[in-house]
Write a structure and sequence with these properties.
- Two copies of one chain form a homodimer.
- With about 375 residues, chain A is of the alpha/beta class.
- Chain A folds into two domains: about 210 residues, TIM Barrel (Alpha-Beta Barrel), CATH 3.20.20; about 130 residues, Lyase, Ornithine Decarboxylase, Chain A, domain 1 (Beta Barrel).
- Chain A has twelve helices and 17 strands.
- In chain A, strands 1, 10, 11, 12, 13, 14, 15, 16 and 17 form a nine-stranded mixed β-sheet that branches.
- Chain A is elongated and about 75 Å long.
- Chains A and B meet through β10 and α10 of A and β10 and α10 of B.
Chain lengths: ~375, ~375
Amino acid sequence: MTHKTLFDLPTPSLVLDRSKLARNLRRMSDTCARNGVSLRPHLKTAKSIDVARMVLNDETPGIAVSTLCEAEYFAKEGVSDIQYAVCITPDKLERVAAIQSIGARLVLITDNAEVARAIADAQGRIDARFLVQIEIDCGENRTGVLPGSDQLVEIARILDAAPNIDFDGVMTHAGHSYGCRSLAEIETLAEAERLAVVTAAQTVRALGIACNTVSLGSTPTALHARNLDGVTEARAGVYMFGDMFQAQIGSCMVDDLAVSVLTEVSSHRADLNHLTVDAGALALSKDRSTEAVPNDIGFGLVSDLRGRSIAPQMIVKRVYQEHGLVPVPDGQWLADYPIGHRLRVFPNHVCMTAAMYDRYHVVDSASGNDTEIVAVWPRVNGW
Amino acid sequence: MTHKTLFDLPTPSLVLDRSKLARNLRRMSDTCARNGVSLRPHLKTAKSIDVARMVLNDETPGIAVSTLCEAEYFAKEGVSDIQYAVCITPDKLERVAAIQSIGARLVLITDNAEVARAIADAQGRIDARFLVQIEIDCGENRTGVLPGSDQLVEIARILDAAPNIDFDGVMTHAGHSYGCRSLAEIETLAEAERLAVVTAAQTVRALGIACNTVSLGSTPTALHARNLDGVTEARAGVYMFGDMFQAQIGSCMVDDLAVSVLTEVSSHRADLNHLTVDAGALALSKDRSTEAVPNDIGFGLVSDLRGRSIAPQMIVKRVYQEHGLVPVPDGQWLADYPIGHRLRVFPNHVCMTAAMYDRYHVVDSASGNDTEIVAVWPRVNGW
């Protein structure tokens, strides 16, 4: 059965507004062009070839991914330049080789000399050349080596010397930009991110080793960096869709949010002044990132079917596996939102929410008919 | 490619220990038999026909589910007695009728007179008979009507009078048992749950309306109720697998946990005394339920490949989309857990974690070879 509008789609479902997506993509492309760097969109949020096709072009030929499952999917769909932006482990190299054999250039990252040696040692055993970048820690304190460290030098020398490896450069990710609470903080952190990766590139070049790629990025820093001198590319992912957390840390406006969950009112409790919707912990995810920002919206901001917020206090306050609980001021609200009434919920963290679905139901709010489903786009989940 | 052991399976993957599952199933079956009630296993956690087949038999012919997608899946697999244990909305009735046409008896629940009227009004429009129970609130304050309330009477009369409806009884769910912190509290709450649903049945019968089913349940109350007089069936789901939260509220022991996530060490930070594993927010879920119990294990307890806990402090403390961060006391631990070393993580809330995967890799710790994969069982996700 083909569902034609948000009125006949089963609930819960994942809704993607194509015109808002296009606007978000253009904003980041323009920002990167202004900063003189290539954009390498990170598809870890969208996980969709249809979204990738909207952003890929001659100036933006490559993507980043977060799983080998994504890499396989995009390679099969014809994407030829893919960075697997999570530290590689040696037992995954055979799968990497298989993805390259589909026709994709698959760039790996590492922050470890033992892993670099293990890739070099695959020579003879795995019939493939590996493209490898070194991950730099610019202050996130998660993975990566420090910009001027002995480890960086050691790994670069191992990669450069190995006959089966093409050393491709350095990369970093300022994931700690999610902790910023002002544009000034983001700008400062973006400069720290730039300095870290440019310094790392200089460290490598001082060894006489070419360092083609100097890559950085997170949605907040890619959007708000004032200067990207020495950087070759910026990566970002969540900017495509935006979410309630990103809206509160300055990456976008609530009106920019391209992804929401279609739901309907499933129960009323007049005695307790709440209603439930049929989007709960699985449909929204249990991400609580807005707990750390000024406006805690629980598990999601409730909007009408056209995506307009109803009231600031109209939020999914609690979730159970298949129930979302929405407190209301009084019984009049229950009359206004009867059982079966359809709503949309904007989530805290769209990467987590979208991962619960295998497809997007695409609408186009700029078309004049913002409840018509104009396309269904599959997603790739899992590992 | 068929993976034969936990050593060659891609990471992250979902691992199910069949012998622990069997032990958990037997414990609940024995408890229900001792209490003189039928068991209606809730498949919202397992979402697997292979798991359903382990628990269904002549004494346990029916299941509960939390989505119509599950109902469709189990009906197609031949399960003939299914309760959809989330309040029905009128626009889902056509889908209910389609599931019944596969051959399943599909019991619906409602807590609302308008919905009861809408089901009655489907007469003539939808060619189906509907089996409906009334949901009772036993203190969870989520959905349901109160046991002696006017609403209960009104709904029962509507359902009883409708020619296209078979009124099937009353049901309740003591989900607030998850807030209990002692067995005494659970026993008290189990008695409140029993009293609520038995009182509701008496209210209905006093109207001259038959009330065949008197159903209750949650894993803690179904396991620890001291008396289920007047109850016909108990429902529970998470008991099949258990998780770190259930272990801490007295539903099981850590050694009973049947589901874990296979992962491997992906990075070392000697300068920060941590390692990362390749199971992050998507592989484990962002559920933080152990935040509310004495022993907060972050996003999961790390164990060795055979499922034995390594140290109480060896937990996934932070998650990023594909990284789990595990603090370690000192560098010796990094030497002991090199990159590529395989581990298993026991999650906070297995319903949320399992939902991130489309299959279980089944092992059997009682077989003497606890890393061999003896089966692959699919799961049904989505709505």
